Structure formats: C-alpha cells, structure tokens
Amino acid sequence: xxxxxxxxxxxxxxxxxxxxxxxxxxxxxxxxxxxxxxxxxxxxxxxxxxxxxxxxxxxxxxxxxxxxxxxxxxxxxxxxxxxxxxxxxxxxxxxxxxxxxxxxxxxxxxxxxxxxxxxxxxxxxxxxxxxxxxxxxxxxxxxxxxxxxxxxxxxxxxxxxxxxxxxxxxxxxxxxxxxxxxx
Length: 183
Fold this sequence. Notes:
The protein is an all-alpha fold. 71% of the residues lie in helices and 0% in strands. α5 (68-88) packs antiparallel against α7. The longest helix has 28 residues, at 103-130. The protein has helices at residues 2-14, 24-31, 35-41, 45-56, 68-88, 90-99, 103-130, 140-157, 167-179.
C-alpha cells in the first residue's frame, strides 16, 4: 500500500503536477486508497514527500572504520552516485527544484536525510583527528564543507561536469593532503 501511494505521487509529478498542488485527496484518488490510509502512515504531505525522496536514496553503506580516508571516500562515493541518479531522473530533479517552495519539506528532508549523513561525516573526521590521521586543529565542520562542497557543486550546480568513477577518491585525497598532520 505504501509503495502504491509513493508511486502515485511520482506519477502525478511525472505528469507535471507541481508538489505545491498535490493534495492528499488527489494522491489518495490516484493511488486508489482512502485519505485515511495515507494519514495512518504520514501526518501530512511534507512527511509523505520526504518518503518519496527517500525512495530514491540508496541506503548508506557500512563504513569499515579502518581508516578515515577510506570512510570518507565511501561517504563521498554515495553522494556521487546520488548525483548520477539525480542527473538521469528528470522527475527527481523536478521534485528537488520544487522543494524550495515547501519549506517544511526542505526542513524535514534536511533533518531526516542530510543531517544524519553530515553527522556521520563529522564523526569520521573527529575519529581521524583523535587517531592522528587529521591535524588536531582542523575544524571538522570546515573539513566537511571542503569535502562535500566539490561533490555538491558537480552534482547540483554543474550538471555538465563529469562525475568520474574516481572522483570521490580524488576529492578526499586532495583535501586530506592539506589537512594531514605534518611530520
């Protein structure tokens, strides 16, 4: 039932209906369910839309925890793959573009998808500083921005830029070159 509802939202958006014009009633009608069925699973449109976006998200991979570098490469590789998915999906691109018009949706997506990944990256960086892989004076928030920024730039703002298979490794190695402890 949940999948049918998510697919109904995707179908409506694919038909050109803006998220801001999607009502629970219209989604329910398209999915062939009652409004109560939707409200039993979600407390409103924004919560439903977050699950629609999550349906496109690959689950985060387990981090081996062997080295800060390897964990960072794995995290950035996930972001690169999401960028490839976004580029190949006009539907997903449309949904993300419309999120700006729905601040509650943006906040919910941020809280449930972006923030957990950000915290995970910060944990990896702090672990790296604690075990000597990263200079102790490096601000983890700044290091996170230095790592994630280039990937986001290429996936969101420069859709023509290549997302080569080794891009995550190149970004991590370039950034870490400047943040590693000096002998």
